[in-house]
Amino acid sequence: MDTMRDRFAPVVSQLLDENPRLAVVLAEIGKDGFREAMRRHSDRVLNVGIREQLLIGAAAGLALTGLRPVVHTFASFLVERPFEQVKLDLGHQGAGAVLVSAAASFDWPAGGFTHMAPGDVALLDTLDGWTVHVPGHPDEAETLLRHAVAAGDDKVYVRLSVQANQQGRMTDGAHFVTVRTGRRGVVAAVGPVLDAVLAATEGLDVTVLYATTVRPFDAAGLRRATAMAGTDVVLVEPYLAGTSATAVSTALSDVPHRVLGLGVSRRELRRYGTIEEHQAAHGLDARSLRERIGGFVGTDRVPVRV
């Protein structure tokens, strides 16, 4: 199976041919995928070099001229390093762009902590008006990229990862998908953690919701699920644990509820290892999720297959 990032350059290159408003801004990372597009559209495919603050500033300038910029690099260099420019050049000036990241929370462990960004979605949560897509499969990534480019002049973040579910699912860029129904709690799985969540909850009487878009948060979808399954809610997110806990509490503010936020911990792991070792260390493997979800919702425990 190809990766989400494998889909990125071909899809956006095609959109460049179709949409004269579209522009691409790169900071060295990913430039090889756009060589042909740069030849065809030299005025709309820009590489600013290893200058991430300029990456965002140039995108904002293009947006202010009426273009729709797609901006790409690793998540840590796209959201964290140039955060002031994201806040001011885009947000304060009311300029829209599509930020497309790679490397996610720990996709490239050998790159070290400088190339990890488990706090990216939480950081964007401090700003107003961002749509955040977290696909869990290359097919979903392609769909959401097309949604993002077509989203007028909105500010959109698309979080790509090498981690992926085996099966892509239909996504409309807005709502939760109900994957499994139950009566003793709701488990909301975001993007590439769905397969682990399904393995972890096999045989448990819980509803499993799948989210590929987390901002805006589908409050109505969560309320419908909890009306049937109860108001114990477990969030499983592939980034900083508890990032969406406030959104859950806001959605259920008029009813008693409990929330358990599972995801990447704040503890820095200094032995970088493999992706699978990071998942296990953060409790995001199926066996660990089984223990934590089962303990929270109080469902009878059945051995999990891993």
Automatic annotation (TrEMBL):
Cite the Transketolase-like pyrimidine-binding domain residue spans from the record. 2-167
Q: Which Gene3D superfamilies match?
A: 3.40.50.920, 3.40.50.970
Signal peptide boundaries:
none
What is the top-level taxon of the source organism? Bacteria
Q: What Gene Ontology molecular function terms does this protein carry? A: magnesium ion binding
PANTHER family xrefs? PYRUVATE DEHYDROGENASE E1 COMPONENT (PTHR43825), TRANSKETOLASE-LIKE PYRIMIDINE-BINDING DOMAIN-CONTAINING PROTEIN (PTHR43825:SF1)
| Entry protein name | Transketolase
Source organism = Streptomyces pluripotens
